[in-house]
Design a protein that fits this description.
By secondary structure, the chain is of the alpha/beta class. The chain is 43% helix and 17% strand. The chain is globular, with a radius of gyration of 22 Å.
């Protein structure tokens, strides 16, 4: 599976700062100091409706992570998956009377278009669940053969008790885990499981549903968590720098994935930091496919909204915050974009070197994009009020906003 084209990231003078970011597993800020190549895995979409503003906010957060790293003169090895076979996708295809593969391809293509328009940097490896199946099967077989997994009516389940570190990502108690498992794709009430929290690794073939040859596992398809584990281990290995996604993935998805990987390798932790973006609401409720209260990037683009304004609307909120999308949020972003473009269109302006360092400082401090935007606002206000005599300043500001915030002026 191919990703989307990369927009050019302008080179800036000097060097950026190492990133301090909130780690869910420790519930505190950690300083990330990767080697020459920073490694990040971000969980991708299930392509039956793409791309709503909740998605866009999440991928914007991890695009900022990449930009901060690139500014420190590191390379970035970024991996993202596409869950292109799963119950919600199959259910939507049946509901709409269309082929599930065609639905997945269509929505994945639309996601690529949205990411390109928003200037999100693409992953080096963009891997679908279906293409990952040859790598998933041997991992499930290993877990089963070592006693870390078991069969139940043809399905294979992972035993969470096989990992002594289980629970260390989300730090939730068993009752909270059980509630979230039921809400987020688990089956805690299924009879016969050793532990109600045990997640499925391999689902035996169901009538009328797609399945693949699983070798000794039989015909079937992979569970959700093992998909990301297989892709991450194949392309990044253990101990990569950041595991990212929305806050609703901390449990069960990232918790279970970490336990799968740690049990398979005997190493801990799977990732050095677990980083989670907040949820975006509409009309007082979390924006989600199940509720149908979605604002789509593609619809805004069709309505003529500049993608740079959409990106500024996302950047106006701290990535970890839960916030609500409104018409005013977009209007404010459109107005800000206009002010910034007017400011950099002049031949000279106030000195900009200090502004570049302000943006760097803000982003290195847990991706504080609102503080970075405020710094650019101050420069634009000074430009509008008094101007300046630095002929290179508008170009410096334009390149810095592009390189660090992903907004083309």
């Amino acid at each position: 599976m191919h990703a989307w084209p990369a927009s050019e990231v302008p080179a800036l003078p000097g060097k950026g700062r190492d990133l301090r970011i909130h780690d869910t597993s420790t519930d505190g800020l950690v300083t990330l100091a990767p080697g020459p190549v920073a490694r990040i895995y971000v969980c991708g979409i299930t392509p039956y409706d793409a791309t709503h503003m909740g998605h866009a906010a999440t991928y914007n957060a991890f695009d900022l992570v990449q930009r901060v790293w690139l500014d420190t003169k590191r390379q970035v090895h970024y991996v993202q998956n596409v869950t292109d076979v799963d119950d919600p996708l199959l259910e939507r295809a049946v509901r709409d009377g269309i082929d599930w593969e065609g639905l997945a391809e269509r929505e994945t293509a639309l996601f690529r278009e949205d990411m390109t328009a928003l200037r999100m940097l693409p992953p080096q490896h963009y891997i679908g669940a279906v293409e990952a199946i040859p790598g998933i099967v041997p991992l499930v077989e290993r877990l089963r053969d070592t006693g870390a997994a078991y069969e139940l009516d043809g399905d294979i389940y992972f035993s969470v008790e096989a990992d002594p570190h289980f629970g260390s990502v989300s730090n939730l108690d068993a009752a909270a885990m059980r509630l979230l498992s039921a809400e987020r794709g688990g089956d805690p009430d299924r009879p016969g499981k050793k532990n109600t929290l045990d997640p499925m690794l391999w689902m035996a073939a169901r009538e009328g549903e797609p399945s693949w040859d699983g070798g000794s596992l039989g015909q079937g398809r992979p569970g959700w968590h093992i998909e990301c584990v297989a892709i991450a281990l194949d392309h990044l290995g253990m101990g990569f720098d950041v595991q990212g996604g929305g806050s609703d993935l901390a449990f069960p998805h990232h918790e279970m994935g970490a336990s799968h990987a740690q049990t398979l390798t005997g190493e801990f932790p799977m990732a050095k930091a677990y980083v989670h973006a907040g949820m975006v609401a509409l009309d007082g409720e979390k924006m989600s496919k199940s509720k149908g209260n979605l604002v789509f990037v593609s619809q805004l683009r069709r309505d003529g909204v500049d993608p740079a304004a959409i990106r500024l609307a996302l950047l106006a909120h701290h990535y970890r915050a839960d916030w609500e999308w409104t018409d005013q949020v977009l209007a404010d972003a459109v107005a800000r974009l206009g002010r910034w473009r007017a400011a950099v269109s002049r031949p000279d302006g106030p000195p900009a070197e200090g502004l570049v360092e302000e943006i760097r400082a803000a982003l290195s401090n847990d991706l504080d994009a609102p503080a970075a935007l405020a710094a650019v606002d101050r420069w634009a206000e000074a430009q509008a009020a008094d101007g300046g005599s630095d002929e290179g300043a508008p170009g410096v500001v334009s390149r810095a906003v592009d390189a660090l915030l992903g907004v083309a002026l």
